[in-house]
């Protein structure tokens, strides 16, 4: 059974992460932290879609897997996949010590990921309405 209310709660939490990322970027905070906020925003948007259709949430942080699952219902732009791979890497590599921290995402990478996260959020929000 569809569950629009719970799906909208997922989307609201995604907006919180997206807003936090925007503020942190504007204030020139650490890009690794911003990357994690953006990953969380995208993850929550993608998890909201199957919830909207009454399905359970996949227990993964891999945005490509979540995108594939969400595309059963909704087709996203093809050009976002590279950004989602990068966002998954930021989350996995930079979230905890010993995770393989390689380098800080550049301002350009974060700016592009903000645009992708905004696109996904807006696209899912429109789909729910």
Give the overall silhouette: globular
CATH architecture classification: Up-down Bundle
Structural class by sheet pairing and helices:
mainly alpha
Unreliable spans are: none
CATH topology: Four Helix Bundle (Hemerythrin (Met), subunit A)
Instruction: Return Rg in Å.
Output: 14 Å
Tally of domains: 1
Say which CATH homologous superfamily is assigned: Nucleotidyltransferases  domain 2
Helix and strand string, N-terminal first?
A: HHHHH
Query: What would CATH call the class?
Result: Mainly Alpha
Largest sheet: none
Determine the N-to-C terminus distance: 17 Å
As a percent range, the share of helical residues equals 55-70%
User: Quick check: average pLDDT?
Assistant: 93
Strand content: under 5%
Number of H- or I-type helical stretches? 5
User: How many runs of DSSP E, i.e. beta strands?
Assistant: 0
Briefly characterize the structure.
The protein has five helices and no strands.
Can you characterise this structure?
There is one protein chain. The protein has helices at 4-26, 31-52, 63-70, 81-94, 107-128. The mean pLDDT is 93. The longest helix is centred in the first third of the chain and has 23 residues, at 4-26. Helix 1 runs antiparallel to helix 5 (107-128) and helix 2 (31-52) packs parallel to helix 5 (107-128). It has 129 residues and is mainly α. The protein starts with a helix and ends with a helix. 69% of the residues lie in helices and 0% in strands. It contains five helices and no strands. It has one domain (4-128): Nucleotidyltransferases  domain 2 (Four Helix Bundle (Hemerythrin (Met), subunit A), Up-down Bundle).
